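re: ur question from earlier - yeah i can do the single chain one, its not a big deal. heres the input i used so u can compare w yours
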Amino acid sequence: MEKQEGRPADERVLQAPDRGLVHVWPSGGGTEQLFPDKVLLSRPVVQVSLGEHHGVLLAQGGQVFSFGELSWRGLSVPVSAPVLEASLLGRTVVHVAAGGFHCGAISEQGSVYMWGENTAGQCGQTDRASVTNITVSEPCPVAMVDSEVVPPVVVRVVGLACGREHSLALSDHNELWAWGSGCQLGLVTNIFPVWKPQKVEHLAGRHVIQVACGAYHSLALVRSLPAQDFSAQSTPKTRERGRSPQCPVADREELVTNDDAHYCPLGVELSEVMRSETPSRRRVSRQRLHPAGMSSGSSPGSGASLSSFSDDSRSNPKQYCVF
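and the output i got, formated as tokens:
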């Protein structure tokens, strides 16, 4: 007992016999009593990610398991017995991500593998636009090459996030890459799907720390610019108009439109600029930036607000960029 008590607390937690156990429970009515199902695996789970009706598990040792409605394979896998993604064996996966109906994984070498629904190009596979209901049944490598350097180099990925129709990757050079469909890609294009990963030029030169995806929106956490650089890019006039300091557009209202064929490729920086806007304008902008006339209320996480940004945020060395 004395030997056990003498160990550091974090070491005792790591050696607990129940570490890495996963419990999953379905949605239910307000009066329905739910009982979590225990996921049975031979090794501890170190990371999990959930899609619309499926989940991906990363087990110790780099093995990947899936459960739920795997429509791209025509399977319905019970939570209690997830299936091994055998095609990833030997690649030592270090990170997994689940989108609405697709999945992604990063190997320890920084390679990206994706599988699932690919109708919007969200799996980053070859252009097969003439084929409907495109699916990728097994994890396939995604080619990510930076052709802006000579000679072109393969991009090493350290972060991955998936939405419903798009995917984002963070490179080891802290650059953001995107593919799939919709304005949530942050790309300067209105031609979709984007079948191959493209660098998000709007954040070129910025140090991206982390990326996240909602169903139809994206967020990038970036390192703040030095005070003198920020003031040089933002005049009092642009702050009054609520524009991003890096948005060289004559009038931001041109980007806020209800035209289903119009996409906004530029991110909105959640800083003092956004705090100066009125709540009513923010609500209108979020609803109209969705493709196909969808409102923000139709996607997960749409209830998030900007109220958590206090006056102290201007001294925080991080900024958020939303697409």
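Helices lie at 2-5, 9-14, 227-233, 236-241, 272-275, 279-288. not sure if urs matches, ping me
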